[in-house]
Amino acid sequence: MFKLMVLLEKKDNMTDEEFARYWLHTHAPLAKKMPGIKKYVVNIVKKPPERESPYQGVVELWFEDIESMKMAFASTEGRITKEDTHRFASNVTILYIDEQEIAI
Known about the structure:
It is built from 3 helices and 4 strands, in the order E-H-E-E-H-H-E. It has helices spanning 16-31, 66-74, 76-85; strands at residues 2-10, 37-44, 57-63, 89-97. It has one domain: Alpha-Beta Plaits (2-Layer Sandwich), CATH 3.30.70.100. A 4-stranded antiparallel beta sheet has the order 2-3-1-4. The protein is of the alpha+beta class and 104 residues long.
């Protein structure tokens, strides 16, 4: 499996609640329509005590492999999803992840 993570900064004119609501109720339904997506996990960042976080969200997108991910974002649904990201996020950082799970 291939995992893509995206770190999101909310638009300055949005509250944390507006950011989360838009992401969960408008953007996530678009992302779920991308062909080949296996798993989509929204992580809303909670502010640590007495500190600010540069990110308000982290999303995990899982695909069979990197080629499936490329095809998903090249699709009509993928392009719509990517364009919609800019309606609630001012900046995104994309990470390709090689996850190593350590058993406890």
